[in-house]
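2024-03-11 09:14:02 DEBUG pipeline.ingest accepted 1 chain
2024-03-11 09:14:02 DEBUG pipeline.ingest length=883
2024-03-11 09:14:03 DEBUG pipeline.predict start
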Amino acid sequence: MSSRFLFRAEMVRLVFVTGLLCLLADPFAARAGTGEDEGRRLLTLDDVLMIEGIGEAAFSPDGKWLAYNLVPAYETLADYSYWLRAYGLSGHQLWVRDMAGSEPARLQPGLDPDATNFLFGFSPDGSRVVTIEHRLGRHRLVVCRTGRDDCVRFSEMPDIRDRYVAGARYNERLVWTSNDRFVVPVRDPDLPGSEMRSRGTAGRFLWREWNKAWSGEGVTASEAVSTGRDRSEDWASGRLVEFDLSSGTTRLVAEGRFAGVRVSPDRRYLIAARTGERRRPPPDARPVAHETHPVFDRRYGLRLIDLKTGKTDVFNGPFNIDPHSLTWSPDSRRFAVFGWDRQETPQEGCFYIVDTAALRPGCRDHGALVLATNHLDPDYKWWAGPARAALLDEGIAVLARDADEERLDWYLLGPGGTISNLSASLDSPAGQLLHAGDRSITIISGTNVVRLGTERPVDPILPEGIEITGPLTYRPNMAHSWSNEFRLGSPLIRYPLQDTADFIVETPDVEGDGAIVHVNFDGTDNAVALQPVGIAGARVLAASRAAGAMVATLKEGAATRLLLIRGHGRVEELARINEHLNGINHPVDRPVSYTLEDPSGEQPARSMQGCLLLPPGYESGKRYPVLVEVYPTGTGGRCKTLEDAARAGAVLDDLWSARGFIYFRPALPLDLASTPEGSLAGYGNLLDQAIGALVEQGYADPGRIALYGFSQGGIASLVAATQSDRLAAVISVNGWADYFSHYFGARGLMRYFHLDQNGGDNRWRYECAMEGPSHYCPFGFGESALENPAAYARTSPVANAADITAPVLLVHSDFDYFDMAQYDEMFGALYRAGKEARYVRYWGEGHGPSSPDNIRDFWRRIDGFLEESGIFTPDEDTPRARD
């Protein structure tokens, strides 16, 4: 049977099955949509702490095994030390299922049951499964015989991310040099990439250093250096290591920190970028992200490593390279890299082609073309390097556009400066690279997959009648409780191009993923196969043509089912999570409209819409206490309940509603908040107007208004509190309070390892000046704290503490990214001003509490504070009595 006939037959079956499922809709879902609450109860903190999650899923390359992550009930975890917060990011268990057997899935034997085990992939032959294990701040690689109690736990800490601000995905993958060996950069456990912000690592470091000092056994000093000298030869410490799974040993491949490692197709060579120390941004850097925090904030030096001889070749040029751009030709004789010389900016660079025999990099000039960026978004605030390119026999294929055009096309940069447009005849814009051969590339174009080459016409691969939405990758899906830190399917992780790929098909008028299309790029008659999902509303996590199966999730009320779907409609339930939330009487989302006048009187009145959650059992006409949450984005957004998206957390909107509050998140436009007195000088005025609207519309009890803010909302709540007299209580959590000291100060737990990266590191937050109702610069002064220290000091909440009229509850943590000393200052100001204030500090916590005991304590203190303030009057039916 031809692939096109097979495809059309499957399409007929797909439409029939999905149509039938729409007719046989789930009766529970229909009932839930009516808001019926008979027999349901109020949400408690116990319910939140029992929320579960679903992580990554993958089939082995041969289709014999399925592996997937489940996150058990949050309160049952053994380790809450991950990152700045644990919920939603850790606790993952690895489950495996033999696809040929009838036994149910089981936990992978040999793994630490108290650790987080992120699925990191299979070996090329599928015989082994790899996890990233996290335990008390330590990451390590663990490799097991799939389904067997035969595991190797390596002691080296993988250097899986290599950026300070936002972890680029240079190293978040395994580089397989054989079926039982892979290469990964590693670092000393005390030198994590700063983006990990590891509380466990910081705590272990401090305990060790304290004991050395107290015992008199060893020096405990550390040093930070501010220097503008040339650091191009200051290479960062680390090692490039090959892991041998058969022997459980490692061998050193090269000294130094490395990024973007690529193995040649014949597995003889490695190309990689040796990583330098981070350079201090110049003092005259403009207050824009790409100058104060550039992606290429250090030198990346090109290296070629012979795996057989151990020889490392160092190149004189290009001076700097983009680690993401390294790519091999299919015959392993050449490789390409994007680079630039010392006197050039990254945007002025070009692609270089290097022959492994001659070792003389040659630049392929792209002329007047503007190269597409890694994010395919010309307005992205960082220039993150060029989009992925492919090295062909005739040159290098790049995604670019003419300088005076917006459309992106694929161009071939040939010898002698020749440039040819490979995709000019495409009706739809050219997009993501999928596969590269000797003389052609395969890409996404609109809703199709096409093959392009210099000696062939454009060749659509998918049969007529199919439209894809994109490759099957792990993508955020809070509604289905997908919860994963290492999103291995992210398009920002450049895995080696494969001979196969899977794509998502959506069926008209049916919610969810309709089918998965498997494509082999070898051009055979069976190159395309359609695998229907067959279940309306399902979202696919992973699929395998070899296994003839897929894994998908399906929402049922607030619960989520994890399903193994095989051919002929066979469905096996692997897990059902968060079923307990279907017994909850959830709050009702009701958007609220109101009008805001410009505090400066310069702009006309503006109609706004905010997020409003009504408590279960809401009675129209009755006035309720209101919890107002602020966050300085300028928008209110849509309210989402746990029924919409079940996720664990320390503070969830539903918990306020369950306590009898109306929850309100107003839209407070930043252009209206900005006045000649300061960027947020009108913020309190706007807040008062929004609260007044709730009072006028009959929702709010004007004497029982509480203000809450977390993170950036923490300082926004303090700013508003200095400007408003309508508040009965203020709760400010894990923010900051003094613009001047925050501009220069250390970033919380970052001080222990990266103090040299903190001086003036918040300049982007303050020196910027942006326009419009919503942007990322709500605290902008348009000048530095060195230029106008008085303005910073004068407008800070610390300096205006005497203007606060409501009692204040401050909450912070010693291992947060925002330094706890900021709230030490704020409490001192409130104390000195004679204001009513409470200050709670949690030790060992990050950006808010993660420990269930601390979360419970947090809510007990909030309830007590609101009760003391006269806002909250619990009775035996409120969750407080049970929490």
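2024-03-11 09:14:41 DEBUG pipeline.report Confidence is low (pLDDT under 50) at residues 1-36, 163-167.
2024-03-11 09:14:41 DEBUG pipeline.predict end
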